[in-house]
Amino acid sequence: MDRIRYIKVCGDFESTGLWDETTYLQVYPDEINLPEHFVKRLDQLVKDYDPILPLDGDELQAPPIQEKIREIDARGTELTKELATFLGDKFSLRYYSEGLQKFIEI
């Protein structure tokens, strides 16, 4: 029987946006035969989080930043759902909000 691969989808700085939750290593799109349209969306998710990641405290709580986090996370959770459907039952995916510093139920 094949093992399920647990993957975290997130906008971590300069990453592929995919992390193996067992090994804590990045997952590269070619490892899982990910089509280019998914790769581009993951790249955009990571790029959109780049200016937010260094923020903390009051900066992070500013209404425009919170709105941007909600917008990025909405796209991130939708992408995670689509990836889960594409990858099938040999994978278990979760979405992690870099702005909220927690997993978001999908």
Account of the 3D structure:
It is built from 3 helices and 4 strands. It has one domain. It has helices at residues 36-49, 57-61, 63-87; strands spanning 5-10, 18-20, 91-97, 102-104. The protein has 106 residues and is of the alpha+beta class. A 4-stranded mixed β-sheet has the order 2-1-3-4, with helices on one face. The model has no long low-confidence stretch (mean pLDDT 95).
Would you spell out the secondary-structure blueprint of this structure?
Elements: E1 5-10, E2 18-20, H1 36-49, H2 57-61, H3 63-87, E3 91-97, E4 102-104
Parallel strand pairs: 1-3
Antiparallel strand pairs: 1-2, 3-4
Task: Supply the key terms.
single chain, alpha+beta, four-stranded mixed β-sheet, 3 helices, 18% strand
Can you describe this structure in just a few lines?
By secondary structure, the chain is of the alpha+beta class.
Q: Strand order across the biggest sheet?
A: 2-1-3-4
The run of helices and strands is EEHHHEE
Average pLDDT taken over every residue: 95
Structural class: alpha+beta
Per DSSP E runs of 2 or more residues, the count of β-strands stands at: 4
Alpha-carbon distance between the two ends: 26 Å
Rg is: 14 Å
Give the overall form: elongated
Number of helices: 3
Major beta sheet summary: 4 strands, mixed
Please give the domain count: 1
The quaternary organization reads as single chain
Question: Helicity, in percent?
Answer: 40-55%
Uncertain segments are: none
The fraction of residues in strands falls at 15-25%
